[in-house]
Amino acid sequence: MFTGALLDALEASYCVDTERIFATGHSWGGDMAAVVACFLGERITAAAPVAANRPYWFEPQTGEFSCEGEAAVWTFFGVADDHFTWQAYPGEFGDEQDAFWQEAHGCASEGATALDYGLPASGHQTPSYFSEAAMAWFTGF
Q: Could you give the angle at the alpha carbon of 41 between the alpha carbons of 39 and 45, nearest 5°?
């Protein structure tokens, strides 16, 4: 995987705190942040995908797999996301991301959530508070 090779190269060339590697991205970049959190979860400390698609990359037809490690994931998805017009209800894909990570990490679904619906008006855009909130969260690791 490209991201694993990139991490190898960076760690070989620079002083990298391997206990504090984070991923984030918006839209397809959010998909990528979620994918590396799953498949490189032993190397990624935490990920904060924004406006990511539903977790279709992890569906059974892609083959059996399990996430490696337990990267923490904080999902940001706007209830008013107008990019994903095929959702059955507003925020459906955010709910699917949340359910995927709860199951992947064995979290109790009652009361546990990784989902931040943010401001309903945030739509498909990155919420205005995202950078500050995500950096504060990453700094806590």
A: 145
18-139, what's its fold?
A: Rossmann fold (3.40.50)
Q: Domain coordinates of the chain in residue numbers? A: 18-139
Report d(CA 121, CA 140) in Å as an integer.
28
C-alpha torsion angle, residues 24, 47, 41, 72 (rounded to 10): 180
Rounded distance, CA 101 to CA 70, Å?
10
DSSP state at residue 25 = E
The pLDDT assigned to 79 comes to 81
Measure the CA–CA gap between 94 and 74, rounded to whole angstroms: 11
Q: How is residue 122 annotated by DSSP?
A: G
C-alpha span between 40 and 34 (Å, rounded):
10
pTM of the model: 0.85
Name the residue among 4, 46, 50 with its Cα closest to residue 22. Answer: 46
- Run means of pLDDT, 10 residues per run, the chain, 141 residues: 92 96 95 94 95 79 77 88 86 86 77 48 81 95 94
Angle at 114 between CA 32 and CA 27, to 5 degrees: 30
